[in-house]
Amino acid sequence: MNKIILPSIEEIIEINEKLGYNVVNRGALDFILARIKSRKPSKDLKKNISFAAANLWYEIITQHPFLDGNKRTAAESMKHLIETNNFGLEIPMNGIIYISLKIANNDITFNNLIRIIYEKLK
């Protein structure tokens, strides 16, 4: 079965709180998760995970649902989703930071992010 396990809004908020911050726009988180759930799943589980992980990473950074810590929360939420679904991401921490900054500066497209995750997902 190609059903993926998504983090809940509460889990994402908990990640942000562990980083020392707090939520500003819970509705934005709800929208991000709804967008992932509304996509027709592919038969390729790796593709589904890549899409969901890219959504969390990209949308949390660009929509700013938190007062602070959006890039860190996005990266940790994305990693949590990947690990919960028994995959790994072969990108070192400095690479994750670099990509997060590229997302924040609009230097990487959503589709390119999906491709990067897909290629590095193990």
Q: In the CATH scheme, what's the topology name?
A: Four Helix Bundle (Hemerythrin (Met), subunit A)
Give the second-level CATH assignment, the architecture.
Up-down Bundle
Strand content: under 5%
Number of discrete domains = 1
CATH class: Mainly Alpha
Report the uncertain regions: none
Number-wise, the strands total 0
The ordered H/E elements are HHHHHH
Structural class: mainly alpha
Using only C-alpha atoms, the radius of gyration works out to 13 Å
Major sheet summary line:
none
Average pLDDT confidence is 94
CATH superfamily: Fic/DOC protein, Fido domain
Helix content: 55-70%
Shape: globular
List the helices and strands and how they pair.
Layout: H1 9-18, H2 26-38, H3 45-63, H4 70-84, H5 93-104, H6 110-120
Description:
The chain is mainly alpha-helical and 122 residues long. Helices cover 66% and strands 0% of the residues. α3 packs across α6. The mean pLDDT is 94.
